[in-house]
Amino acid sequence: MNDLIGVKIKSLRKERKLTLKQIADQTSLSISFLSQVERSKSSITLETLKKISEALGVNPSYFFSESDKKSATNVMRNVIKTNTLQSQFFYRDLAGNIENPLFNPILVILNPGAKREDSYSHSGQEFLYVLEGKLTILIEKEEQDLNPFDCIFLDSTTPHNWINKTDSIVKFLCISSIPV
Fold first, then answer.
1. Domain boundaries, given as residue ranges, for the chain
2. How far apart are the C-alpha atoms of 100 and 162, rounded to whole Å?
3. Backbone φ and ψ of 134, nearest 5°
4. Which CATH superfamily is domain 4-58 in?
5. Which of 109, 110, 121, 138 is surrounded by the fewest CB atoms within 10 Å?
6. pTM score, two decimals?
7. Is 100 buried (19+), middle (13-18) or exposed (0-12) by CB count in 10 A?
8. Can you identify the CATH homologous superfamily of domain 82-177?
């Protein structure tokens, strides 16, 4: 993920007069890990960013905005850059510079064999819509296979995971609610 994310996390944490320990307590992440993230010495997953975002009271898209200009309308073209598809996951926040969106739309691309480390839960709800490939969703201990144009709506507080068990990439939209 972007090196500026750590800088933005630290800036927002200090602006809110929060300590690393307070953020660690709220997110179940270690103080040393959070410090490494703030200094761009360690990268984070989208799940970790969601936890930190909740603790700081912002939408995860806050950390991806490329300018301070806020708009009610945002057109994004060619959202996938081929050089960014080298890791197991590719996330692209599609909210752009929209100020205080009511939901968080993300394009996710999983390379063959990709899987999040562990099942994850967070506040809110998620809607997944498969664009390409076969996506396996693990919800608690139950697996669901989704093909192109299939979708699922789930309570995000239930532990869940995204898995690509195929030899082809999987592209899907993840639209999650913003914690209030």
1. 4-58, 82-177
2. 27
3. -120, 115
4. lambda repressor-like DNA-binding domains (1.10.260.40)
5. 121
6. 0.60
7. exposed
8. Jelly Rolls (2.60.120.10)
